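Continued from yesterday's entry.
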Amino acid sequence: MTFIDENERFEAWLRQQCPVVEDDLKRKHKKMSRDSFSFLRATFFRWSSQIEGLCPDLKGAPVVLAVGDAHIENFGTWRDSEARLVWGVNDFDDAANIPYVFDLVRLATSVQLMPKLGAGATDVSDAILKGYRNGLANPRPTLLDENETWMRAKVACSDDDRANFWTEIDGLPAAEPPPEIATALTASLPSDATHERFASRAKGGGSLGRPRFVAIADWRGGRIVREAKALVTSGWNFAHGDISAPIQFLTIANGMFRSPDPFLKIESGFILRRVTADSRKAELDDGAGSPDTRLIEAMGFDLASVHAATSNTQAIVADLNARPSDWLAKAAEAAAGAVENDYAEWVNRKSK
């Protein structure tokens, strides 16, 4: 199936799962045309339908509860219940039971497609695998106030980030969430907060088009924000015809080797979370800086910590040991080529 046909099929299905915001879907289409990395971010459903055919020697690897849409900008920061600053995977919309290798391949592919990174494919793959092996051996959350203080300069928000955050919030258009979502957003605020307004928000790549609302309130001298985003089944399950599979968002987000966001929950088919300047996805074009191999290694470590919560790590290590040293670099190269082909089809669609 061509990408254009599969994209139309996916969007038709999405309209059956939630009330799609058509203007946001147009924004998604525009972002998909920006470059092949942005295209990858927005099209996990296509990756899910192709990757086993592109890398048939990988599909028999041990299955884990995986991130699914693992890519270099699917990592960010949040505050845990002890107010510690934590970094790691912060989007589990596409979590599903998937062979562990495909999270690693998607991460490596995203680095290869990211413009102007300058890291070689072998260096990237080696860094991911080094971090992943270390994470399997010692899974734990990545804490920026204690263990990984070196990372703060790479991912912690700056004064400009804070100012930009509030500029964005001030500019969000007014909206009326469905009654049950408005109630859930209001209930997530402190009881003595003064509700200011509801607004709509357009963020992300693959989730653009799904309804997303925020509640903005005043509380004890400043403003606070809560967000609700529609949740649908994983693109992996869509691609494999298993749309009745249970959504496992909270299972993986609250895994035993993570220090989760205490504000994260699901209500009436929406993900609810606290939104602050330093609880954010660290997009590398927003001032977070370009990643070095140490940061990429940390991404591999965090993926292992996610996988270790629901899998037999000894089986994964045995599978890794049985693979040639260049397996990840070669798989990422094959996957990147397929993404580039689909991207070319997408940007040339109007000229045909």
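--- second protein ---
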Amino acid sequence: MLVAVLRLCARLPLAWLHRAGAALGWLAYWASPTYARRLKENLYASGICKDEPRCRALLREAIAETGKGVTELIAIWFGKDEKVARLVVECERWGIVEAARARGKGIIFLTPHLGCFEISALYGAQRLPLTVLYRPPKQSWLEPLMVAGRSRWQARVAPANLSGVRMLYKALSRGQAVGLLPDQAPGAGEGVWAEFFGRPAYTMTLARRLQQSSGAAVIMAFAERLPEGRGYRLHLEELPADDLDEAALNRAIEAQVRRCPAQYLWSYNRYKVPAGASPPPELY
């Protein structure tokens, strides 16, 4: 019944879903003091906005954009293939992807929590085989919906565990593409502390290890959410693979966030100390 309702809602214009999402974003902000505090603290501490009026304006935008990121999943996960395929209305520099494919070493797509990271992967999966790492949600009933929504065209999903990581290595060994959320906090032993917007953040080492073992190209990708539900603009940028340590990775993410700061997921608990991990030296 739930899936049937969501498929029906997926027929609605994207603009309607985004308006509903903006309202949802404000509802969540006012209903959860913990959520609101984290969102505001992360945004203000980033240094992106240089004065109080701009910070307040950017905060209002971020609250609404975060909600849009939830309701747009209805269109992306439950919409018909032909409709989903039309959601990306512009793509910058797809030629760098084709050039990387021609080299035959595979591609590592890095999609931060910026804009609509769900549509970025599906756009790529229409054009090449793509294995995407995902972390199973805390609500177990949501996982089958997530997996089905992400497994379209040539996309495969790999759980964030040892078997999933092996799937990534195997895909790269075949010269295929993989996708990661590079700003997702890893588990203990799977990351190092590196500066992110001026604060220590436990940062995954997987992207570097995958690149070093395969020689794959590394391409940052994010889908900018366009106003009035007009769709998405996909931005692509190849990173220098020979300088891909965790500090450089975070700097690259920062550069993308500065292009579209209202659409970053500031509410994500990016600066937590994972269970079992040692805190950064500044916290001792």
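The chain has a mean pLDDT of 95. The first strand starts at residue 88 and ends at 91. Will compare against the first tomorrow.
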